[in-house]
């Protein structure tokens, strides 16, 4: 499957990706600005006074459950919806009131929306012909697009003669053909099976890198957002909850909602006992006799009720108590085991009935696991493994 | 297994038997009459086959059949060829008018809110609740020199002497367009209604104004409906005789009317049968076309 595009970008991709963070640069000018944008449908507020900056060449993901307003936010950029209040600018130009056919953005639709009466070639050429691009240039661009999505031999087919994956590629090629300033992707991989989806995610990143374009993707699949995006905006009820690069979203969620929505997490209710230079001491309701040290506490003050979030892969499960006294340790019994092949998920019941999940990679081909149902185990984690959430 | 195969065969056989008994056999009878000669008798033609007279008699009668009537109908001296031509022209023009009137209506119906659509559909079918004949008679009342239309135009002061509409080709066009409109609207509506709106969004996204999107997306995708609607109107309109008879003038020449005159006034069963068989031949082309369109529709799904 690997062609020129993939190989060429392989050499540069790391270099570019590692340095790319215009959102940390106060002098950088955003390409897309949502300014206090509100969208109401009758009584329902889909997007609620939201402001967001997206930078050039960024691969930006809008992540959230269905009905959170992410699709509406994207459709307002495409021009299919007009904001009730607020401004949307693209490269400094106010877009509000501009009809979709005059906006320099293109969209790849969730249903692909390929024109069923046109061949693959004509579908890809559609936008260029609409702009009255000269014939030779249209042909050259369509050939280039077909090559980019590896569909050279399918140019004459009609959409109904293609597989789901091929249709997805045609839709992508069609939306890229006009070289829009921004490409909008509405759940682009939702209809593909898991394997194909993962492959395509990487291809999308390569294509974005190769063309140097700004991509805005809407998805409810957090893995997809984590894989492809430079930054993720987690949305809920029409508001942005957190906007950050994937690792920050995962490792430093700013509230329970984000921690819970992105990835698997154990959330323990706790009370802050003391705060000092090295971190803070918590007492969890699940283990009142065991004070816990957490190295990062945000703005938590002594006496605050907080949530302690720890990812399952950061919990260790042992039959013996850990020797290292600096580790936080909880004791419990194995309630259930989920065997996933690469990982085993141990559900550990703490004395007060709260259950935590711990993921352990299956490093050896052991059919009989040493830890089994009803074993008394010790769950431990380092002070920097947990995140204290005040919201 | 055998019982199951037999059951399946029965299910298939029922519609074929129906067509055989109610379409093919009557057609063969008409065809046979068209090969016979006029006679002052009951029935008014000969030869007649009587199974009781035995095989030899039937064989002898067969020898008396001829294509004479077809020669009569197809000769330039008589008005038949002209009537066929004029019927095709009137049906063709009517079909174009029907499309021009029906498409906007079907389009508006398909774009209206989902809640409203059943009501609109009901309104399109509503005229069928009254007899076709009565509705055509009603048009006489509207179009006649002292009819509703002229009275209304007088009232408005638009005209000072009555418009001559009744007993002209215009009245025939009005009658055909009015009577056949549901047959145009329904296939158009069903083609337009199942269209995916995101296709129009995609077209707009790629730079199409709403007008361009209509011609590049909506129109080509509605073509099966356009073909179906046009053929569904054109085929029966060619043979139409009630509308030209009631609304048309003496110079309105349509083959259906000619056939009726030949049958009821001239009492020539044989010539009118020949006219009917030839009319069927003329319509075979559009009927086959229609079947093709239907077939493609089914396969397209």
Automatic annotation (TrEMBL), chain A:
Q: Which Gene3D superfamilies match?
A: 2.40.50.100, P-loop containing nucleotide triphosphate hydrolases (3.40.50.300)
Gene Ontology MF terms: ABC-type putrescine transporter activity; ATP binding; ATP hydrolysis activity
Q: Does the keyword Ion transport apply?
A: no
Task: Check the record and name the Pfam families matching this protein.
Answer: ABC_tran (PF00005), TOBE_2 (PF08402)
Enzyme class, first EC level, given as a word? translocase
Q: Which UniProt keywords apply?
A: ATP-binding, Cell inner membrane, Cell membrane, Membrane, Nucleotide-binding, Translocase, Transport
Q: Which SUPFAM superfamilies match?
A: MOP-like, P-loop containing nucleoside triphosphate hydrolases
The UniProt catalytic activity note for this protein reads: ATP + H2O + polyamine-[polyamine-binding protein]Side 1 = ADP + phosphate + polyamineSide 2 + [polyamine-binding protein]Side 1
Domain spans labelled ABC transporter:
32-262
- Look up the domain of life of the source: Bacteria
Q: Name one GO cellular component term.
A: ATP-binding cassette (ABC) transporter complex
The UniProt entry, under CDD domains, shows:
ABC_PotA_N (cd03300)
Q: Which EC number(s) does UniProt give?
A: 7.6.2.11
Q: Known InterPro entries for this protein?
A: AAA+_ATPase, ABC_SmlMolc_Importer, ABC_transporter-like_ATP-bd, ABC_transporter-like_CS, Mo/tungstate-bd_C_term_dom, P-loop_NTPase, PotA-like, PotA_ATP-bd
Nucleus in keyword set = no
PANTHER family in UniProt: PUTRESCINE TRANSPORT ATP-BINDING PROTEIN POTG, SPERMIDINE/PUTRESCINE IMPORT ATP-BINDING PROTEIN POTA
- Its biological function? Part of the ABC transporter complex PotABCD involved in spermidine/putrescine import. Responsible for energy coupling to the transport system.
Write out the similarity annotation: Belongs to the ABC transporter superfamily. Spermidine/putrescine importer (TC 3.A.1.11.1) family.
* Name of the protein described by the UniProt record: Spermidine/putrescine import ATP-binding protein PotA
Species, as recorded: Ancylobacter mangrovi
Gene name per UniProt? potA
TrEMBL record, chain B:
Matching CDD domains, A to Z? TM_PBP2 (cd06261)
Domain of life the protein comes from: Bacteria
Q: Which UniProt keywords apply?
A: Cell membrane, Membrane, Transmembrane, Transmembrane helix, Transport
Coiled-coil stretches: none
Return the GO cellular component terms, semicolon-separated.
plasma membrane
Transmembrane regions? 9-31, 83-108, 120-140, 171-192, 221-243, 269-290
Tell whether Membrane is among the UniProt keywords. yes
ABC transmembrane type-1 domain span: 84-290
Keyword Metal-binding among UniProt keywords: no
What membrane topology does this protein have?
Multi-pass membrane protein
Q: Which InterPro entries does the record associate with it? A: MetI-like, MetI-like_sf
Q: Where in the cell is it found?
A: Cell membrane
Q: Of which family is this protein a member? A: Belongs to the binding-protein-dependent transport system permease family. CysTW subfamily.
- Name the chain's protein: ABC transporter permease subunit
The species is: Ancylobacter mangrovi
């Amino acid at each position: 499957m690997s062609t020129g595009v993939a190989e060429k970008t392989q050499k540069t991709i790391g270099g570019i990706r590692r340095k790319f963070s215009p959102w940390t640069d106060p002098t950088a000018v955003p390409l897309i600005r949502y300014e206090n944008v509100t969208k109401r449908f009758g009584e329902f507020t889909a997007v609620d006074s939201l402001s967001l900056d997206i930078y050039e060449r960024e691969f930006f993901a809008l992540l959230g459950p269905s009905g959170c307003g992410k699709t509406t936010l994207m459709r307002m950029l495409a021009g299919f919806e007009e904001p009730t209040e607020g401004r949307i600018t693209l490269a400094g130009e106010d877009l509000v009131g501009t009809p979709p056919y005059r906006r320099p953005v293109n969209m790849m639709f969730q249903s692909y929306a390929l024109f069923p009466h046109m061949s693959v070639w004509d579908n890809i050429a559609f936008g260029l012909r609409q702009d009255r691009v000269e014939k030779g240039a249209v042909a050259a661009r369509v050939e280039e697009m077909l090559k980019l999505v590896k569909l050279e031999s399918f140019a004459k087919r009609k959409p109904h003669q293609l597989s789901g994956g091929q249709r997805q590629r045609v839709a992508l090629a069609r939306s890229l053909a006009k070289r829009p300033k921004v490409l909008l992707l509405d759940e682009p991989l939702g209809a593909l099976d898991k394997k194909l989806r993962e492959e395509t995610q990487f291809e999308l990143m390569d294509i974005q890198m190769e063309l140097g374009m700004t991509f805005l993707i809407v998805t409810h699949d957090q893995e997809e957002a984590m894989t492809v995006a430079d930054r993720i905006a987690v949305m809920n009820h029409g508001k942005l909850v957190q906007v950050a690069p994937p690792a920050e979203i995962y490792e430093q969620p700013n509230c329970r909602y984000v921690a819970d929505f992105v990835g698997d997490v154990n959330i323990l209710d706790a009370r802050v006992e003391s705060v000092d230079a090295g971190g803070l001491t918590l007492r969890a309701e699940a283990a009142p006799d065991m004070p816990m040290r957490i190295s990062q506490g945000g703005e938590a003050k002594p006496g605050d009720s907080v949530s302690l979030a720890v990812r399952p892969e950061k919990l260790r499960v042992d039959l013996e108590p850990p020797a290292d006294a600096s580790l936080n340790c909880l004791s419990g019994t194995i309630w259930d085991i989920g065997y996933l092949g690469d990982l085993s998920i141990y559900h550990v019941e703490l004395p007060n009935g709260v259950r935590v999940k711990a993921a352990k990679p299956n490093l050896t081909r052991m059919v009989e696991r040493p830890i089994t149902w009803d074993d008394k185990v010790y769950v431990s984690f380092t002070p920097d493994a947990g995140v204290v959430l005040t919201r | 297994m055998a019982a199951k195969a037999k059951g399946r065969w029965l299910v298939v056989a029922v519609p074929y038997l129906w067509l055989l008994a109610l379409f093919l056999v009557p057609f063969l009878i008409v065809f046979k009459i068209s090969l016979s000669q006029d006679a002052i008798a009951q029935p008014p033609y000969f030869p007649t086959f009587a199974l009781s007279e035995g095989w030899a008699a039937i064989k002898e009668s067969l020898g008396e059949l001829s294509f004479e009537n077809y020669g009569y109908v197809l000769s330039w001296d008589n008005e038949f060829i002209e009537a066929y031509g004029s019927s095709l022209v009137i049906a063709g023009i009517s079909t174009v008018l029907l499309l021009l009137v029906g498409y906007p209506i079907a389009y508006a119906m398909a774009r209206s809110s989902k809640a409203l659509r059943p009501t609109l559909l009901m309104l399109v079918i509503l005229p069928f609740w009254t007899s076709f004949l009565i509705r055509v008679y009603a048009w006489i009342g509207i179009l006649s020199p002292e009819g509703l239309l002229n009275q209304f135009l007088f009232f408005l002061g638009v005209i000072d002497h009555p418009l001559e509409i009744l007993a002209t080709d215009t009245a025939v066009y009005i009658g055909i367009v009015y009577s056949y409109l549901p047959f145009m609207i329904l296939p158009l509506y069903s083609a337009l209604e199942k269209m995916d709106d995101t296709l129009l969004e995609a077209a707009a996204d790629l730079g199409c104004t709403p007008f361009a999107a209509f011609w590049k997306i909506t129109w080509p995708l509605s073509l099966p409906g356009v073909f179906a609607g046009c053929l569904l109107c054109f085929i029966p309109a060619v043979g139409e005789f009630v509308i030209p008879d009631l609304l048309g003038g003496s110079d309105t020449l349509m083959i259906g009317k000619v056939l009726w005159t030949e049958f009821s006034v001239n009492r020539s069963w044989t010539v009118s049968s020949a006219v009917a068989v030839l009319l069927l031949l003329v319509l075979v082309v559009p009927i086959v076309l229609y079947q093709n369109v239907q077939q493609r529709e089914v396969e397209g799904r």
